[in-house]
Amino acid sequence: MELRAKKEADHEIPTASMGDVAFLILIFFLTSTVFTKDKGLKMLLPEKTTEKEKVVVVPENIITISINPAGEANVKTVGYNEFLAADDYEKITDIVEEKLLERDTLLVVSLRTSKDAPYNNMVLALDHIKLAKVTTADGRELRATKVSLIPTSEE
Amino acid sequence: MRRSIIRLSQRRTEIPTASTADIAFLLILFFMVTTVFRATTLHLKIKLPEAKSTERILLRRNVTYVWVDYESKIFVDDNLVSGDAVAAKITPKVWENPDLITILNVDEGVAYGVVDVILDQLKEAKAFKITFATERKS
After folding, report:
1. DSSP assignment of B46-59
2. 104-133 in chain A: CB under 8 A from chain B
3. Which of the residues B41, B53, B54, B63 would you substitute to probe the A interface, choosing the one with the greatest number of A C-beta atoms within 10 Å?
4. Which of A38, A54, A89, B109 is the most buried (most CB within 10 A)?
5. 0.90 surpassed by pTM
6. In this complex, is the C-beta atom of A70 within 8 Å of any C-beta atom belonging to chain B?
7. Which of A39, A145, A127, A132 is nearest to B55 (CA)?
8. What residues make up the domain containing B131?
9. Measured between CA atoms, how close is B8 to chain A, in angstroms?
10. Distance CA B35, CA B44 (A)
11. Inter-chain contact B129–A42, Cβ cutoff 8 Å?
12. Residues B55 and B111 placed together within one structural domain of the fold
């Protein structure tokens, strides 16, 4: 009689607290997770060139932006020459857009930064070049993709 | 009538919780897989420049970092290096992974000349894909 009673007893693993344990671990991972926050301005550097490999670009296709140590930018292209103060860089976008419509994919932006100029100004100028975006008459979206970074030094 | 009301109130109402654990474990798995623990805590004073056209970099496995703090000190892999030693540090990484993206975390006040030296070194190391780390400007 006693034996039979033992056999009939319920065997069960209590699972009621499973959810609690799982949520505990969940909260640990929630608080310790750091999502990627890498962000910035992408660039593709050119190969190192020798004197012989130099590419000649016609002046009509170039916008030259020169940044001096004080952070002022001189924007120069055929028929245009203007000095921009550091808080006036927005104009770069307009000029690049205008020239993009005119020159299409041939446009080259030459960003000449003085070695003594603050890095911030160079990034700011690059940002405004990248912001330029136009749609051509035949529906293509154009951006200034050819940007060359050139250091200059004051003598 | 009265009896049926009593029976109704006596009916056991319960929310099924059997699947709670499953849901929770599913979430755990998600966070376990996506978590990347910070390998290094850098105590560098770097204020990144702000830019409107900031993009996110999604391929985290292909990334390496170069840090330049406000005193123009250059760090690669948590080591202080001189400007002309950057190529030596980066070259083996490019050999390992040709798609390497170098992220330049440079303080906004640093002179451009310092950055130019690094860019030149990266060209030498054939690490052509670079990103200037910036904060998004609203």
Report:
1. --PPEETT-EE---
2. 113-124, 126-127, 130-131
3. B53
4. A89
5. no
6. no
7. A39
8. 50-136
9. 27
10. 24
11. yes
12. yes
Tell me the chain A residues in contact with residue B131 when contact means C-beta distances shorter than 8 Å: 38, 40-43
Checking ipTM against 0.85, whether it exceeds it is no
Chain segment A60-119, per-residue pLDDT in tens: 888 888 888 888 888 888 877 888 887 888 888 888 888 888 877 788 888 888 888 888
Query: Across B5-107, where does the E strand assignment appear?
Result: 50-51, 55-56, 63-68, 74-76, 79-81, 101-106
Show the tokens assigned to A105: 């994919």
For residue A121, give the nearest of B138, B132, B127 by alpha carbon. B132
Does B37 lie at the interface with A, CB-CB under 8 angstroms? yes
> Distance of alpha carbon B43 from its chain centroid, rounded?
16
B124 and B75 in one domain?
Answer: yes
Longest CA–CA span in chain A (Å) reads 110
Q: How far is CA A118 from the centre of its chain?
A: 18
Residue with tokens 């760090």: B75
Q: Does A36 touch chain B (CB under 8 A)?
A: yes
- Whether B76 maps to a domain, the answer reads yes
pLDDT tens digit sequence for B13-59: 888 877 888 888 888 888 888 877 665 556 677 888 888 888 887 77
The alpha carbon of residue A118 is apart from the nearest alpha carbon of chain B, in Å, by: 5
Residue reference for tokens 């446009």: A107
Q: Do B132 and A116 touch (CB under 8 A)?
A: no
Catalogue all structural domains in chain A, each as residue range(s) with its CATH number.
61-152 (3.30.420.270)
B38 touches A: beta carbon within 8 Å: yes
